[in-house]
């Protein structure tokens, strides 16, 4: 029976997500990805060409899943930020990949036209909402996006004395605080 190429490719992406989220692009090893994916290095290179292309595929896969699971709502940026936090709390490897992507040179280096078009569409929606007086124009749209992400990811990146993972109640409490903070930030 011939192996399913789609299943092999999917296993490689999952294994690569785990490897890249722990080690970043520079520290990740193709050998470990191939072993974890139960695929040969030759198959990995046949699908992705090189490690950088595989990294971009992992980032794109995570972004596509994020877009599907976390609906954007320009009329409820606080709720959107809370949903973003809940998603990243449930998938901490995605947050680590975002941080590694920034260290590698940002989304421009790893993003695709699809990622850039979604971000541009959201910027345009927020700019229109500012013009219509629906959200604060005290900051530029880029500043708002940056501050919203900073608020959303604060508990994941700030130093903490408590190294234990947050329980469900604490995650929900944080999401509520994030929602309130972003609403306050964006209120005209």
From TrEMBL:
Recite the UniProt keywords alphabetically. DNA-binding
InterPro entries reported for this sequence: Homeodomain-like_sf, HTH-type_TetR-like_transc_reg, HTH_TetR, Sco4008_C, Tet_transcr_reg_TetR-rel_C_sf
Q: Which residues form the HTH tetR-type domain?
A: 6-66
- The signal peptide here is none
Q: Which residues bind DNA?
A: 29-48
Read off the Pfam families from this record.
Answer: TetR_C_21, TetR_N
From which domain of life does this come?
Bacteria
- PANTHER family this protein is in? HTH-TYPE TRANSCRIPTIONAL REPRESSOR SCO4008, TRANSCRIPTIONAL REPRESSOR
Q: What is this protein called?
A: TetR family transcriptional regulator
Q: What is the lineage of its organism?
A: Bacteria, Bacillati, Actinomycetota, Actinomycetes, Mycobacteriales
């Amino acid at each position: 029976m011939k192996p399913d190429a789609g299943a092999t490719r999917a296993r490689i992406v999952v294994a690569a997500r785990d490897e890249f989220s722990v080690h970043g692009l520079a520290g990740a090893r193709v050998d470990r990805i191939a072993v974890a994916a139960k695929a040969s290095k030759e198959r990995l290179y046949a699908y992705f060409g090189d490690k950088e292309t595989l990294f971009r595929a992992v980032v794109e896969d995570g972004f596509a899943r994020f877009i599907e699971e976390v609906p954007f709502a320009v009329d409820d940026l606080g709720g959107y930020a809370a949903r973003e936090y809940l998603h990243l709390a449930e998938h901490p490897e995605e947050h680590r990949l975002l941080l590694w992507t920034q260290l590698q040179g940002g989304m421009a280096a790893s993003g695709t036209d699809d990622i850039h078009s979604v971000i541009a569409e959201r910027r345009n929606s927020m700019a229109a909402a500012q013009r219509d007086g629906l959200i604060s124009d005290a900051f530029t749209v880029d500043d708002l996006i940056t501050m919203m992400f900073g608020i959303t990811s604060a508990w994941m990146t700030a130093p903490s004395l408590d190294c234990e993972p947050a329980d469900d109640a604490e995650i929900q409490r944080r999401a509520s605080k994030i929602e309130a903070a972003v609403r306050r930030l964006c209120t005209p």
